[in-house]
Amino acid sequence: MSAVPQAAATAQSVSSPYRLLVVNGNTTSELTSSLASQAEAFYGGSVHIHAVTAEFGPAYIASRAEAAIAAHAVLDVVEKAVETPAGFDGCLLACFGEPGIGAVRERLDVPVVGMAEASIMSAMQRGDRYAIVTVGQRWPGMLREQIRQLGLESRCAAILALPGNALDYVSRSAESALHVSRALDAAVAQGADVVIVAGAALAGYLPSLPRLPAVPIIDSYRAALAQVLALASLERAQRLSLIRADAHS
């Protein structure tokens, strides 16, 4: 058989719409629906989003024990999702704690992006010292451990925990918006020149705030959406360059 039809088919697959797997490591399906809708709006409908929810574990991760359970649940749901014949160009783990991300990267041969690493790397490109605002009293300690593992703690000015239950913030009430706004101000007061609004429950929160401080504010979910598409685009461009090189050889 001629290699030309195969090359043409491969080139066509390279130019097809991107397919991204979005994994909610929490078991709250309503949150998954919100994350999927936000991703579709972010990409303007140009990317196919397949969003999945962890089938067991906490409704919303708030402790180390829950994160350990969620890591197993994340890998389990990814294993099931990748059985689809169409495959994916990238995977986004939509939990700021990134449970199981190492195992997922080991399992997949496409870019796997987590919200913490993506937003912190973005923050360091926008300022000198970053702060993180999230929900849950245990998260500051958990995130300090995570940041140390990433080797990024020296530029962290502060980690601030919002009061209450994370899922209560999904409704974006006036009271919760005020809590977030005050935490952003406190982060700047502690020396941050860029602030990350962190976690799936706070994804898409910025338009609901009464005001923003005069420093860059990064939505951790949108930072991950931007980065996973950038990495998937890089992978595709490299494959396309190889196809073109083969066609001319």
TrEMBL record:
Signal as UniProt keyword: no
UniProtKB keywords: Isomerase
This enzyme's EC code(s): 5.1.99.5
Gene3D superfamilies for the chain: 3.40.50.12500
InterPro entries documented for this protein: Asp/Glu/hydantoin_racemase, Hydantoin_racemase-like, Iso_Racemase_Enz_sf
Class of this enzyme: isomerase
Any one GO molecular-function label of the UniProt entry: hydantoin racemase activity
Family statement: Belongs to the HyuE racemase family.
The name this protein goes by in its record: Hydantoin racemase
Provenance organism: Achromobacter insolitus
Lineage: Bacteria, Pseudomonadati, Pseudomonadota, Betaproteobacteria, Burkholderiales
Primary gene name: hyuA
